[in-house]
Amino acid sequence: MKDNHALIVGSIGLDTIETASDRKESILGGSATYATIAAGKSSSVHLVGIVGNDFPIEGINIFKDTTFDLSNFEQKKGKTFSWGAKYADNWDNRDTLFTELGVFNDFNPLLTHQNKEVPFIFLANIHPLLQLSVLNQCNKRKCVIIDTMNLWIDTEREKLKEVISSCDVLLINEFEAEQFTKRKEHDDQGTVLQSLGPQNIIIKCGSKGARLYSGHQLDTIGVFPVKNVVDPTGAGDSFGGGVAASLANGESMIESIINGAALASLTIEGFGIDTLHNASIDEIKRRKEYLRTTLNS
Ligand code: AMP
Predict the structure, then answer these.
(1) What is the pTM of this model?
(2) Is any ligand 1 atom within 6 A of the Cβ of residue 151?
């Protein structure tokens, strides 16, 4: 299998999002959805996930357009994963209103022969047991990238530690990094997280950019100046998809955070996946050029 293939597992869902000025109900969302659309801009995505029989055909068509392999994409009787959230005026706080796992409750995929052989694996945010079950079936791993969230740090800490110890790149936001490590300083958080196994830790700091701890090296990146933030949902997942795609393309860790930051900036400009999905390769290139100028500044 060629190296630009990335296997992505995570949630595929219907999100209800409330911002200070708008509300959208049951729009396409989920960690694997954002990651797949982002990664699909430059790599061949193998998507692992499940939806219920209430999932709209438009969503399925988007996956047909943006992936290389849907042999582990399942649709079964039942409800699609759904999640609701409300943002505070300044975007700084997000309250989860509900999380309904639906068909994810007993999802235990058996990877197809071709999916077991994909070398780059992105375990996007989902229950750590599902992340582990997919990971344990991958027998040609070159690089494992993972993302998670506060819920799993609270409820599944030991399983999450197990996933973290098997990965090469950990993506985590600054609040989760503090919650997990119980340290306030980013440098200390990076050290604690590296001591669990992964040599690359990416701490996502929202509008302040991101920090990459790679071995003994620290690199920082800023953000692309977005004129109007519409909906930040999925920024972290798009960032992760961008990182996975770059690494699958043989690019460096630094190039991977540039790609991640460019894709995240597109996601937050529209509701749900809209702006990200419609973004041209030229626009992504333009944003990456700008983001290069923010490195370590
Ligand atoms: P982000 O804004 O990058 O943190 O990601 C938001 C996406 O994560 C939304 O589209 C949700 O559907 C999805 N999500 C929220 N909670 C969970 C959860 N517990 N497990 C998996 N995915 C989730």
Answers:
(1) 0.97
(2) yes
